[in-house]
Amino acid sequence: AQSVTQPDIHITVSEGASLELRCNYSYGATPYLFWYVQSPGQGLQLLLKYFSGDTLVQGIKGFEAEFKRSQSSFNLRKPSVHWSDAAEYFCAVGAYNTNAGKSTFGDGTTLTVKP
Amino acid sequence: EAQVTQNPRYLITVTGKKLTVTCSQNMNHEYMSWYRQDPGLGLRQIYYSMNVEVTDKGDVPEGYKVSRKEKRNFPLILESPSPNQTSLYFCASRPRSGTSGMEYFGPGTRLTVT
């Protein structure tokens, strides 16, 4: 069965500091991996995705993530956080190769940005 | 504009009164899903559909039904709602697997069952 773990429930960083949100997945084959962001009271917006190829993927809003197969990780990073980045972040894995349609999300990491 | 729409956006109902939340997408996507979001639990997939008349259970299907009679619509049915189904519900769609396989989410439906 596929699963996603986001070890950090809540992270606080200062504005301008770097950010790394952790994501570990469990899946039997090469996964399709996603990071979504949800601002308070809003829906989900895709930040970036990984399907194959280059393991470092660039997304919107200056975010990037690195797929590390050996560590089953897909951590999200940003070099300099802005106050508007405060939101909840979800990592997700999609089993599109075999059980097409089934998606699993992590429990989310809430990011607070200090001025 | 490419979008996923859900109706209603907010709903308060009583235990046992059947309700339907509609979902429609205008992108001709094959795949559609329903999720519920609860604090501390992230998003959990309720049901998904890979095409017309093809549906399958997600992680938390108990108490829900779906149908996919048309490609664009994927309604979520609660035959006898209970308070533990109070949640925020999202519908999503995506094209058949491939590099463009990201999910597009609707705005959400906040359901309260008293």
**Mean of residue pLDDT values of chain A:** 90
Taken as a percent bin, the fraction of beta residues of chain B is: over 45%
3D shape of chain B: globular
- Major β-sheet profile of chain B: 7 strands, mixed
Q: With helices defined by DSSP (H or I, 4 residues minimum), what is the helix count of chain A?
A: 0
Q: State the end-to-end CA separation of chain B.
A: 36 Å
How do the SSEs of chain A run, as a string of H and E?
A: EEEEEEEEEEEE
Shape of chain A: globular
Oligomer: heterodimer
The rounded Rg of chain B comes to: 13 Å
Radius of gyration of chain A: 14 Å
Q: Helix- and strand-based class of chain A? A: mainly beta
Helix content of chain A: under 10%
Q: Report the helical percentage of chain B.
A: under 10%
Low-confidence stretches of chain A: none
Report the major sheet of chain A.
6 strands, mixed
- Largest interface, per-chain counts? A-B, 23 and 27 residues
List the helices and strands and how they pair.
The complex is a heterodimer of chains A (115) and B (114).
Chain A: E1 3-5, E2 10-14, E3 19-21, E4 24-26, E5 32-38, E6 44-50, E7 56-58, E8 64-68, E9 73-78, E10 87-94, E11 103-105, E12 109-114
Parallel strand pairs in A: 2-12
Antiparallel strand pairs in A: 1-4, 3-9, 5-6, 5-10, 7-8, 8-9, 10-11, 10-12
Chain B: E1 4-7, E2 10-13, E3 19-25, E4 31-38, E5 42-51, E6 54-57, E7 65-66, E8 76-78, E9 87-94, E10 104-105, E11 109-113
Parallel strand pairs in B: 2-11
Antiparallel strand pairs in B: 1-3, 3-8, 4-5, 4-9, 5-6, 7-8, 9-10, 9-11
